[in-house]
Amino acid sequence: AGGRMFFVWLAQLAATLIAAPPITLPPLPSNRLALGFDFGTSGARAVLLAADGTRVGTSADVKWGERERLQTASDWVEALSELLEQIPRDLRARVARIGVSGTSSTVLICERESGSPSVCRGAPRMYDFSVAKQAPGECGARALNLIAAHAPPLHAARAATSTLAKVLAWDAEAALTADEVVAHQADYVAAQLCGRAPDGTFRSDWHNALKLGFDVSSLCYPTWLLAGELGEKLADRLPQVLRPGEAFGGITAAAAEKWALPSDCIVAAGSTDSISAFLASGAKDVGDAVSSLGSTLAIKLLSEVPVDDSSRGVYSHRLGDLWLVGGASNVGCAVLREQDFSDDELEELSVLIDVSSAPAQPDYYPLPAAIVGERFPTADDSRVAKLEPVPASRADFLHSILHGIARVEAQGYHALAQLGASELRRVLTAGGGSRNAVWTALRERMLGVSTSRAPEADAAVGVALLAARGA
């Protein structure tokens, strides 16, 4: 039944697809620069690009450290300021465009009048926050039931980690007031530079707004979200959504003075961190994919058709008139640090791994110890790590962990194929894991297609390119 509903939905989407609007920003002048900020899972960084895409400068990373899943909006503002102050004033004086990417589905509630985080709502709800497990009492269940009663089958907003679920769980705790508005992480950071819309709401982009319920086929919020009970809760509180790369607006006088930025600088609509990494990678043909091997694993495949299945954590972002389909798992390189693998040890032990042989423990599921639950390739709120038994050899232990992460990656691409996405043709790799050549060879054997390190993997570069090109 679920499969039939999906194809009905796909036919409806094809019938209502609106062509991507034209690029409105002119080319970046040859003597000016584009500045990209990426607020990722492990930290934040900034990159400056010339008009031809050449990297002019890169900041030192601001790491979240132990606050990775305990971030506050103040942390983001402090990181933004620290990153800007690292950039020499003569280069800041040449910045004409700015773009910001953030982690997908990281959201907070703000006060309409001030734009500050709502004090009574607590910290932002991060990308992996599950209302089914972490929202108080029955608030998560009430939010998910409400979404199930209105959202289309298999829609990304139905997931327990969706932005919409987090916002409605807040509303279930205490009804949203007229003075409260919704902001994604990237929206909030960008607003520190260009302000908000005149009605006090924030500005967002197609990519961040997808899991809030934004319809990327008709390029508007759908009727099911704005009418009836949901509309009563959300009307006039949602961000205004623009095409990624389109101008949010000019920098405010206060921001220009505070950070010595040109008064004619434009802040462009940004993206999510994993999509920005894809844009930086050079992947451009249907069948090209990017696997981001950072603290967590995210995969993105460029497809001619969208595929969505919230029960498997699969969703489709619009990229012009093509689709970037994929999902994000909670497994990833974070577990290597938890198991005390240093950079030197990873390098020394990796060369001892025979990628043609089976690992000592072939069924590991390398979740961090603090995480209960999985988002993709199958959403499972009760999933826990499996990292036992531990082999006597550290090399065998490492082999088993790397194999376990690669197995989840392969299962992810298999899930996309099952749902009808375009055929996988090659995989480029971003993130810290891309530096491990032995792991790349192991993954290539498991994926069955050409697998290599992306020539550029910095999400800050991707969002800077987006701002520079206007799309």
TrEMBL record:
Signal peptide segment: 1-19
UniProt key word Kinase: yes
CC terms in the record's Gene Ontology section: cytosol
Keyword Transferase attributed: yes
Protein source organism: Coccolithus braarudii
Residue intervals of the Carbohydrate kinase FGGY C-terminal domain: 291-470
InterPro entries: ATPase_NBD (IPR043129), FGGY_C (IPR018485)
GO biological process, one term: xylulose metabolic process
This protein's UniProt keywords: Kinase, Signal, Transferase
One Pfam short name: FGGY_C
Name this polypeptide is given: Carbohydrate kinase FGGY C-terminal domain-containing protein
Family: Belongs to the FGGY kinase family.
GO MF terms held by the record: D-xylulokinase activity
